[in-house]
Amino acid sequence: MLVSAKEMLTKAKAGHYAVGQFNINNLEWTKSILLTAQELNSPVILGVSEGAGKYMTGYKTVVGMVNGMLEELNITVPVALHLDHGSYEGCLKCIEAGFSSIMFDGSHYPIEENVAKTKELVAICNEKGMSLEAEVGSIGGEEDGVVGMGEVADPNECKAIADLGVTMLAAGIGNIHGKYPENWKGLSFETLDAIQQLTGDMPLVLHGGTGIPADMIKKAISLGVAKINVNTECQLAFADATRKYIEAGKDLEGKGFDPRKLLAPGAEAIKATVKEKMELFGSVGKA
Ligand code: 13P
């Protein structure tokens, strides 16, 4: 059964480790992540972006697929199904469809509007026993070839949002989605420290987990980060393994590639990436 992310993140923050959020795009990714979490006895969060939700034909399909896998694969570790960077409307759709957790990304609104919308969603999530992630300070990344550096959050705004009763808070600290540019200045630990001092026990979320050096990840966890999001690294591993398989030319003697065999190396590569991250984040054995 899907669970809210609240309990796993409260435990992670108290135990000084982080739970990984791995984004899913299809059946193979989902299966690989769930099997790895079970094998390593680790809690896990499956992230679904609005685009990935559309690709998989809608949130109801995603809920059906994940619930089916939990049962058929005998998954017993805590699993949360979480909307990643949701719009207000997207959040309502996921609540309706049966997700157990949502992120409302109101970081592009003026803080008053972010507060107002987050407040409404806190009330709904509390009633339904779901977890809610809010965001302050935008997280940069590549969009149309332009790499945004990511805004550093104002710790007082973080406190204002945390005080609304959200489950977890994503705060921009110089992190960006995708690969980090050569001239990246690194994470702002000063900001993270100030945010943690003002928000106390609130589990903090680090987006853009791909390409952050291990020592920075460990330091972020020591300063209150309890959830780390990873997407691009799984994409790179999946694409690389699939490309190598095709280049090796193992098709069915002119009949094309067996789709199950074609996607198997990518699925294995995702398992290896997820394992490496869970070990780094310290969530192994914490289910
Ligand atoms: P990366 O794609 O950089 O791993 O970031 C993932 C993320 O933060 C999803 O919200």
TrEMBL record:
<keyword id="KW-0862">Zinc</keyword>
<feature type="active site" description="Proton donor">
    <location>
        <position position="84"/>
    </location>
</feature>
<dbReference type="InterPro" id="IPR050246">
    <property type="entry name" value="Class_II_FBP_aldolase"/>
</dbReference>
<dbReference type="InterPro" id="IPR011289">
    <property type="entry name" value="Fruc_bis_ald_class-2"/>
</dbReference>
<dbReference type="Pfam" id="PF01116">
    <property type="entry name" value="F_bP_aldolase"/>
</dbReference>
<keyword id="KW-0479">Metal-binding</keyword>
<feature type="binding site">
    <location>
        <position position="178"/>
    </location>
    <ligand>
        <name>dihydroxyacetone phosphate</name>
    </ligand>
</feature>
<feature type="binding site">
    <location>
        <position position="105"/>
    </location>
    <ligand>
        <name>Zn(2+) 2</name>
    </ligand>
</feature>
<feature type="binding site">
    <location>
        <position position="85"/>
    </location>
    <ligand>
        <name>Zn(2+) 1</name>
    </ligand>
</feature>
<feature type="binding site">
    <location>
        <position position="177"/>
    </location>
    <ligand>
        <name>Zn(2+) 1</name>
    </ligand>
</feature>
<dbReference type="InterPro" id="IPR013785">
    <property type="entry name" value="Aldolase_TIM"/>
</dbReference>
<feature type="binding site">
    <location>
        <position position="207"/>
    </location>
    <ligand>
        <name>Zn(2+) 1</name>
    </ligand>
</feature>
<feature type="binding site">
    <location>
        <begin position="208"/>
        <end position="210"/>
    </location>
    <ligand>
        <name>dihydroxyacetone phosphate</name>
    </ligand>
</feature>
<dbReference type="GO" id="GO:0006096">
    <property type="term" value="P:glycolytic process"/>
</dbReference>
<feature type="binding site">
    <location>
        <begin position="229"/>
        <end position="232"/>
    </location>
    <ligand>
        <name>dihydroxyacetone phosphate</name>
    </ligand>
</feature>
<keyword id="KW-0456">Lyase</keyword>
<feature type="binding site">
    <location>
        <position position="135"/>
    </location>
    <ligand>
        <name>Zn(2+) 2</name>
    </ligand>
</feature>
<dbReference type="InterPro" id="IPR000771">
    <property type="entry name" value="FBA_II"/>
</dbReference>
<protein>
    <submittedName>
        <fullName>Class II fructose-1,6-bisphosphate aldolase</fullName>
        <ecNumber>4.1.2.13</ecNumber>
    </submittedName>
</protein>
<dbReference type="GO" id="GO:0030388">
    <property type="term" value="P:fructose 1,6-bisphosphate metabolic process"/>
</dbReference>
<dbReference type="GO" id="GO:0008270">
    <property type="term" value="F:zinc ion binding"/>
</dbReference>
<dbReference type="GO" id="GO:0004332">
    <property type="term" value="F:fructose-bisphosphate aldolase activity"/>
</dbReference>
